[in-house]
Amino acid sequence: MSRFRTILGRVGRSPALLGVLGLVAFGGLVELLPHTGWVKAEYFPPSSRIARALWQVMGQATFRTALADTLGTWLTGLAIAVVGGVVVGVLIGSVPIVREFTASTIEFLRPIPSVALIPGLVVLLHQRQATLVIIVYASFWQVLVQVLYGVADVDPVTRDTARSYHLGPLRRIRYVVWPTALPYVVTGIRLAAAVALILTITGELIIGNPGLGKQIDLYYTALDAPSMFALVVVTGLIGVVANTITRAAERRVLRWHPSVRGELPV
Amino acid sequence: MRMRRIAALLVGASLVITAAACSKNNPPSTPGTPDKVTAEVIPIVDVAPIYLGKSKGFFTDVNIDLSLDTAAGGAAIIPGVASGQFQFGFSNAPSLLLAQTNGVPVKVVSSGNTATNDPNNDFSGLVVKDPSITSAAQLSGKKVAANTTKGIVELAIRKLVDMAGGDGTSVNITAIGFPDMVAALDNNQVDAIFEVEPGLSAAKAKGWHVLGSLATIDPGMTVAMYFTSANLAQSNPDLVARFTSAMKKSLQYASDHPDEARAIVGTYTQTPAAVLQSLVLTGWPQDVNTDSLNTLADLMVQYKFTDKRPDVSAILP
């Protein structure tokens, strides 16, 4: 009994171990669900069946191609959104008049769900281009808004100092604006990466350009529920990996920053 | 299927941009170099002949370099072809007739696929689970699943109920995608489904019974066709004629070699080989069946899809 309590105490102190246990419990729940009679195993298979389908699907060449297509589309869209968001954000944010002038337009365009653009886009563009547009449209605002906050956050004393030292616009951006905005930019990228992944799968599923989303649709039309859910698991795993990478990058890029150093700013 | 709901919107949008987009995507043929064309299809069994024809080289034989693109739903295909985004497309017959009635400039270039000639062995079927329902007439006022409203499936359900002596217009049509129909009937969300392969095989395997099919209404009924824009048909009739001839050869080859047709479906869908082996194939005649199109046009007026009867001759070449 006391040994059991010791083990329990050790598990309780380890967040990683607890996380794994939580995941196992969730898997167990999905395994049991079809046995309760609420859902039929035929339409929502137990987790063991999904795991077996995942193993089979992963061995196929079509899976590897689809995974590469999804990653390619996602990262291309994300890159365009990040570069565009940073450049436009720094330009708009640095000039107060432009910032005020564009604020209402940005606030109007930003909430438009990019999936609402799909019907209009598929007539005008090729499938992959249409998907890229909805990815960029959704994730661009994430970056832009963060950059605008970041640029606005520049310490007035620092800005005045830079001005009295006659720093040119480029050097002001490099030494004053950029270090202040960087934490915001990194947060923007992390948010954009998640949004871009959602829109990548959405585009493949609805517009039909090659990738995991399209494969999900093909398994769906073939009435192959286990393989379909196996790919849903894969898209979730991509999201987890993306989040882990961006968080690690955040710590690395910002290791000098008070928010990461964990010290009190002076 | 999802996308068919926004078809009306797309058709409208395509009209606006048709004039602007047509010219750039239809380069004139240069002698010697193959014409690069893209055909937009749906990844289903029905389009096996065009995949087979491409792999057999029937299109390169007539100097066409064919690319096949698949759309998840069919709705974007008509606006996409009308606007010149793709040169050729595959769409169901009522949608093409409706597009023509709405002034979208499309021209049929080839037969696509049809019902079989055997009412009791078609690739489609009106299926019920409740053994006490033995006639389609009993579905009057009941809830029946169609993949989309205002499509060939809705026409078929209403007509089958009427033919059995019921009231077809009283049927409550519910839009449910083909892949979800078996589950919907299993969960009693609907009283009947109008399903196609491979779902039809799954429904039959459950011991449910089929009350009728497209072939019951009209053996060999036209389901879908290949088409192009009126603009391309006019500006490059030679290219369109070559596409038509390659398509005819492909349809004939698929009809003569059903095993090869079944096998090629596995290359662009995820349908398991065992299912492909046993499912009922659609008909793939070479020629467009004008009588069947007229039947469809009449049904479209009868069930109020449109006030104006579609002009069948206007979409034919």
Which properties best describe this structure?
heterodimer; A: 266 residues; mainly alpha; 12 helices; 82% helix; flat; B: 317 residues; alpha/beta; five-stranded mixed sheet; 10 strands; 18% strand; globular
Q: In which range does the helix fraction of chain B lie?
A: 40-55%
Query: If you average the pLDDT of chain A, what whole number results?
Result: 88
Q: Approximately how much beta-strand content do the residues of chain B carry?
A: 15-25%
Which two protein chains have the largest interface (Cβ within 8 Å of the partner's Cβ), and how many residues from each?
Answer: A-B, 26 and 34 residues
Task: Give the biggest sheet of chain A.
Answer: none
Order of helices and strands of chain B: HEHHEHEHEEEHEHEHEHEHHHHHH
Termini Cα gap of chain B = 28 Å
Sequence of secondary-structure elements of chain A: HHHHHHHHHHHH
* Class by alpha and beta content of chain B: alpha/beta
Q: What is the radius of gyration of chain B computed over CA atoms, rounded to a whole number of angstroms?
A: 19 Å
Structural class per helix/strand content of chain A?
mainly alpha
Low-confidence stretches of chain B: 1-26
Please state the CA-atom Rg of chain A, rounded to the nearest Å: 23 Å
Low-confidence stretches of chain A: none
Q: What is the 3D shape of chain A?
A: flat
Quickly count the helices of chain A: 12
The overall average pLDDT of chain B, rounded, is 87
Query: What is the subunit organization of this protein?
Result: heterodimer
The DSSP helix count of chain B reads: 15
Question: Any idea what the shape of chain B is?
Answer: globular
The percent of residues in helical segments of chain A reads over 70%
